[in-house]
Amino acid sequence: MKVSIIIPVYNVEAYITECLESVARQTYQGEMECLVVDDCGMDNSIAVAEQFISSFQGHVHFRMIHREQNGGLSAARNSGFEAATGEYIYFLDSDDAIIPEAIEEMMKVVQDHPQVEMVHGGIANMEGKAVEDFTTKELPTYTEDKTWITKNILYYLPVTSWNRLLNKDFLKKNDMSFHEGIIHEDVPYCFQLALKCRHIGFVRNNTYLFRPQREGSITTTPQEERALMSRLIIMNDCINALQKQSFKAGTIKEIALRFLWRKWQNYLSIHSYETLSKYKKEISGVSTKMRRITPWPLKAVAAFHNIVPLKIKQYIKIK
Q1: How far from 220 is each of 21, 84, 92, 223, 224, CA to CA, in Å?
Q2: Residue 91 CA: distances (Å) to CA of 7, 183, 283
Q3: Would strands 118-125 and 200-210 be described as parallel, antiparallel, or unpaired?
Q4: Nearest partner of 178 among 40, 4, 43, 6, judged by Cα
Q5: Does the domain formed by 3-210 have CATH 3.90.550.10?
Q6: Is the pTM of this model over 0.85?
Q7: What is the per-residue pLDDT across 104-160, written as a single tens digit (0 to 9) for each?
Q8: Angle at the Cα of 237 (from 236 to 242), degrees rounded to 5?
Q9: Are 281 and 249 in contact (CB under 8 A)?
Q10: Which of 73, 105, 106, 302 yields a CA-CA distance of 20 to 30 A from 122?
Q11: Taking Cα atoms as reference points, which of 206, 24, 36 lies closest to residue 121?
Q12: CA-angle at 144, arms to 154 and 140, nearest 5°
């Protein structure tokens, strides 16, 4: 079975070689391609990557995907996904790395459970210290318990698209892609995974090496208005995804709704009065949608969210 590793590249000249080397060292002996997506950065990242690829000799097939213009992380991931030819997809950020056994261990779960749609591993930092330690957590190797899957993806597993081996047919069947032009794009993606995934597996190892957020990265640059606009889009995406789902088990919808209410309150609590005041109409629109899709007795959840700071209460009318 073929695995496609997708690496979006933008201004990571200092880190891209280490990332690519970690892919080149993979012990998985099945067919494997690595798609390096050029998102039109302003440094020499792509030149460094091309030099690495041209001199590489090994079982991994490296391919360069050149975008015509910068589109951001979501657009780069989508471009990689469209070009991928593997049965399984693995997203890797270009300033991070993976352990040599990462893909092999994940594919062992696939081989034992062919119906699995997603395989998740643990996370360590670049020095190998556990960040999300799967060696000690009580996780099943495989489960089909839909309620467990929904709850754990939403509340307990890392909100990331990387370090997850994903079945490509599953993603295409459910029209899974990243919303372009926003930050925190992993949130609606993971929310859809929580709603749609029926078969999940775990590797009891920390397979991914995460680099602490570097200065100037998308999540460390203060852009409050852009962040709020992204969060409004995220909420609308999540609400729309929830409305499209037909749930035979009410508990799954309840879990998702409770998650959205908590996320919504958290989003609003971290923004300033000045920023919130500029988007009163949009904020009220999201709150109205949330109330409409919340059935009794979960209306009590909405009532709870009326007890919020005064600066938010002026803009969010929850009755």
Answers
A1: 26, 30, 19, 9, 11
A2: 6, 17, 32
A3: parallel
A4: 6
A5: yes
A6: yes
A7: 999 999 999 999 999 999 999 999 899 999 988 889 999 999 999 999 999 999 999
A8: 95
A9: no
A10: 73
A11: 206
A12: 75
Dump pLDDT digits (tens) for 285-310: 998 899 888 877 666 655 555 544 44
Contact 94, 12 (CB under 8 A): yes
The first and second tokens of residue 87, run together, are 């049965």
Helix (H) or strand (E) holding 88: strand 88-91
Q: Are the CB atoms for 119 and 143 separated by under 8 Å?
A: no
Closest-CA residue to 13 (of 35, 42, 36, 37): 42
Q: Which helix (H) or strand (E) holds 248?
A: none
Let me know: does 35 contact 5? Beta carbons within 8 Å: yes
Q: Are 189 and 176 in contact (CB under 8 A)?
A: yes
Q: Are 19 and 7 in contact (CB under 8 A)?
A: yes
The sign of the CA dihedral 229, 235, 236, 238 is positive
